[in-house]
Amino acid sequence: MKLGIIGLPQSGKTTIFNALTRASHPTDLSTGKMEIHTGVVDVPDIRVDKLVEFFSARKIVRAKVTYVDIAGLGSGTKGELSGSLLNQLSQMDGFIQVVRCFEDENVPHVLSSIDPSRDVANMDAELLLNDQIKIEAKLTRLHEEGHKGGRDKGEVERETKLFERLNETLQQEKPLRILTLDEEEERLIQGFGFLTRKPMLVVLNLSEGQAVPHLSGTAASYKLIPLQGKIEMEIAQLPEGEAQLFLQEYGIEEPGLNRMIRESYELLGLLSFFTAGEKEVHAWTVHKGATAPEAAGTIHSDMQQGFIRAEIMAYADLMEAGSIAELRNRGKLRVEGKNYIVQDGDIIEIRFNI
Description:
Blueprint: E1 2-6, H1 13-21, E2 36-42, H2 46-55, E3 60-61, E4 64-70, H3 83-90, E5 94-100, H4 116-148, H5 153-171, H6 183-189, E6 200-205, E7 223-227, H7 229-236, H8 240-249, H9 256-268, E8 270-276, E9 281-287, H10 292-299, H11 301-305, E10 307-314, H12 315-321, H13 324-329, E11 334-336, E12 346-352
């Protein structure tokens, strides 16, 4: 899972990145170049810690999430993005847009005033424009193919109809993520990396003690995450003990990292399942709706190919029972086949044959 952190200049993208990843990249330097910072973060999950204790596991492997701080995006006006920047953005699974809400006379806003709703609308328009450029170019090629021949006419017509539908959506100033596409349509657009097709969270970067502003327009349609970015970054640099005291002092229930990870999972439709034993507790990530064989393939491709069955217990059931023997007595240790849909918190043992 890879999430790109985007936003207008001086919005605090790197501040949020540092808070999430506990990095310490400079936040007050602008070289005018596109800079990319990448951080891989362990997903905090109390269930993993409880399972380690339960099984007396010698090793722990947490799920991971990758955050990418993509500098150089946007100036507040619509324009075509550079090829190198588009390449970076198209590789992301989703976006976290950082929107400036804080006032700081030493850090002027690129548009001279603080207006979060306007900034979200401007970023939406910039991403939308770049998708539209790609779609119009594709439609031009399809129309040329239709006249020249050489490819199945029905196939060209189906593609043309799809891309006209995409274009119509953008012309209505709506993102492509609102569209429901079938498997074949998803395959046809897979290589385009459309930016407005990707899911997005909006982080409101607040100053210390600042109230969450009311947002209107397109900004109100997003999941909004208020964070006191500068404070969160300072907390992230502290040793764990000092960080807890800091959190209590500022009335922050938990670090922004923990909250952002959970929202990132929900944004991308992900869930965690576990393999657990005395040797190791390992958290794995799959998309919601994944089958037991697909979960097996996350562990190793051989397991998916030779899948026979999955022995499954729910985390909550195990904690309530207190032992695997009692869980079995209660009939909560289940054997599932290829059609089983994995649930968040499942503890799975795969039976397979190569």
